[in-house]
Amino acid sequence: MRLVQDKAGSRAPRVGLFVTCLVDLMRPSIGFAALKLLEQAGCKVEVPSQTCCGQPGYNSGDRATARDLAEQVIRSFSHCDYVVAPSGSCAGMIKAHYPELFADDPNLAPKAQALAGKTHELISFLVDVMKVKSVDASFDGTVTYHDSCSGLRELKIKNQPRQLLGTVNGLTMVEMNESEVCCGFGGTFAVKYGEISNSIVEKKTGNISEAGAHTLLAGDLGCLMNMAGKLAREGKSIEVRHVAEVLAGLTDEPPIGAPRVSAQS
């Protein structure tokens, strides 16, 4: 495999893209946007064989299944210089919880710790590690941003997406009230506690609407799908997109949650 060389002739960082289950199954365009942004930053990107990060099992108390899935991730990504995910939730699972999962295993504990140490969420990796200061993208509209719980609280992601969004031509950023408050998704939480989840997301969509933005952005697809679904049920015409799609200039796909029109025979 040919390595990309920077101007100084050093090897480009080999980045393993952890696509995430939801992106793979529900919104592949986010994966392509992540790939574009990473390559533009000078990275050599690989997509190793992968399944789930194990977070649903971990959050539900099924540590055995979570460990099995985590072992697969450790094996698949061990050769990469960095592991990058377009999701604060999945990146947070690997970075914050893999070491805990294997704390009692003298063989896997150092491997889990090593993987955690080189794992990053996409936008924070671009800004904090690759020192990306701007993007070459345009977006005609007003956006507001939701800070997802895992990205904000586990990975300290707050200013990084706003910094890059500020360099997108034509984009106007407005802040919603309580942007740091949970959207009510929480993975299996939304299934187990549907009424509570609905109450939380209802307050969130109210804040989104009051911000007056045309488009809602965030860095986690689960959060975005939850908010998009509630906005649609309330009849609110606010587009919902992953921040990577806007930063990469890949906004030809319909917004998240928008009905797809199939070709007529």
Description:
With 265 residues, the protein is α/β, with parallel strands linked by helices. It has 2 domains: 14-128, no CATH class; 133-247, Rossmann fold (3-Layer(aba) Sandwich). It has helices spanning 21-26, 28-40, 55-59, 63-77, 88-101, 109-117, 122-129, 149-155, 159-165, 189-192, 194-211, 221-233, 243-247; strands at residues 14-17, 44-46, 82-85, 119-121, 138-145, 169-173, 215-218, 239-242. The strands form 2 sheets. A 4-stranded parallel sheet has the order 2-1-3-4, with helices on both faces. A 4-stranded parallel sheet has the order 6-5-7-8. Mean pLDDT is 93; it is low at 1-8.
Features:
265 residues; alpha/beta; Rossmann fold; 2 domains; four-stranded parallel sheet; 13 helices; 8 strands; 47% helix; 13% strand; globular
Question: Would you spell out the secondary-structure blueprint of this structure?
Answer:
Layout: E1 14-17, H1 21-26, H2 28-40, E2 44-46, H3 55-59, H4 63-77, E3 82-85, H5 88-101, H6 109-117, E4 119-121, H7 122-129, E5 138-145, H8 149-155, H9 159-165, E6 169-173, H10 189-192, H11 194-211, E7 215-218, H12 221-233, E8 239-242, H13 243-247
Parallel strand pairs: 1-2, 1-3, 3-4, 5-6, 5-7, 7-8
Helix pairs in contact: 5-6, 5-8, 7-9, 11-12
